[in-house]
Write a sequence for this structure.
């Protein structure tokens, strides 16, 4: 019986990056100006003065040291505090499609086969540029791929949901190969004026080619099993959408940007994901303590370390529990794929690993893989 194989991956990394020190300098300059503008209200006790951010605070809270972004100047400008990404004409390739194509071309080159063998394109991401036409269809056209394409959004879990969907297409015989892309311009939805979250996200794009085992060449990864889970929660939310223009509060309101209750998210998501991994491994006959590597969603160093300890039953080594968020920050759906793309080359035939993502929804996905000969 045919099964799915992860045949190749690709990564697009923006040229610009922002260090914690640069981000803190910009936030503190803005906060100082805000406090000065509200001196009377602060003195009267009507509003609270904003607390400065710091490099130490960011690293302790998240493990993040820097992030790649599509526009640095707008983010670190205290008068703007948001990326400046000019809208492109409809007849020009969109920015997120451009990022996706770059990641996809790297994956296709590594795959070594013509795009004519790809039957579907899935864009699985948290942040889309528009409701329609689907970004996946735009990328499909840019790459000259026949077949069909569509977008899907399950927040930070989108990549594992995309791999699961691709694997199901393969199992059903619908297509022989699927291109799954994860473009994320998270900086456009981040509130850089919020001290508790202004450091979280970065921008990036990843790509994964999933194909049928009876067509796959040597190498790659057998998909041993996939599992998905969702539980509704408001603790991570982004209310930006097409109805915002009709809302009295307007699109600039903080509620229309990323918001989360961090402590509640940690308390809810970490046990849910840990138990899901262990249960899924058991159903597949895999000893979770024997996993060679875990490529977890790059959300927060504390979450990743806790999940790693729970799954392995001990403190994992840096080789076992891959961390790339120190350099890339949280890149939403792309995080686990970045980790997989960058830290798999030393694995040998028979090694078993786990790609896992989790995030808003709540949502979580597990993909167990084994290195092919």
């Amino acid at each position: 019986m045919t099964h799915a194989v992860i045949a190749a991956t690709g990564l697009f990394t923006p040229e610009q990056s922002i260090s914690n020190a640069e981000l803190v300098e910009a936030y503190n300059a803005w906060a100082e100006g805000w406090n000065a503008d509200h001196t009377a209200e602060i003195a009267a006790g009507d509003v609270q003065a904003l607390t400065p951010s710091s490099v130490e605070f960011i690293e302790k809270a998240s493990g993040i040291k820097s992030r790649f972004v599509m526009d640095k100047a707008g983010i670190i400008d205290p008068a703007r505090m948001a990326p400046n990404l000019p809208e492109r004409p409809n007849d020009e390739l969109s920015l997120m499609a451009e990022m996706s194509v770059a990641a996809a071309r790297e994956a296709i080159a590594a795959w070594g086969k013509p795009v004519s063998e790809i039957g579907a394109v899935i864009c699985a991401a948290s942040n889309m540029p528009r409701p329609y036409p689907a970004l996946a269809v735009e990328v499909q056209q840019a790459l000259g791929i026949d077949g069909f394409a569509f977008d899907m959004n399950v927040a930070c879990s989108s990549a594992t949901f995309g791999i699961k969907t691709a694997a199901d297409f393969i199992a059903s015989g619908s297509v022989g190969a699927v291109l799954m892309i994860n473009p994320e311009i998270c900086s456009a939805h981040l509130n850089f004026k919020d001290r508790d979250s202004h450091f979280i996200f970065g921008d990036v794009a990843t790509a994964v080619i999933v194909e049928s085992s009876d067509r796959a060449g040597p190498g790659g990864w057998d998909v041993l099993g996939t599992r998905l889970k969702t539980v509704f929660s408001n603790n991570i939310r982004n209310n930006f959408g097409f109805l915002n223009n009709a809302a009295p509060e307007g699109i600039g309101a903080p509620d229309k940007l990323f918001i989360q209750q961090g402590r509640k998210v940690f308390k809810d998501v970490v046990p849910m994901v840990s138990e899901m991994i262990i249960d899924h491994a058991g159903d597949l006959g895999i000893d979770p303590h024997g996993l060679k590597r875990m490529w977890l969603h790059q959300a927060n160093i504390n979450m990743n370390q806790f999940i790693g300890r729970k799954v392995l039953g001990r403190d994992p080594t840096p080789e076992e529990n891959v961390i790339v968020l120190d350099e890339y920050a949280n890149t939403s759906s792309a995080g686990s794929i970045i980790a997989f793309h960058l830290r798999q080359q030393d694995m040998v035939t028979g090694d078993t690993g786990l790609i896992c993502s989790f995030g808003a929804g709540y949502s979580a996905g597990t993909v167990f893989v084994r290195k092919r000969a």
User: Anything to note?
Assistant: The chain has a mean pLDDT of 95.
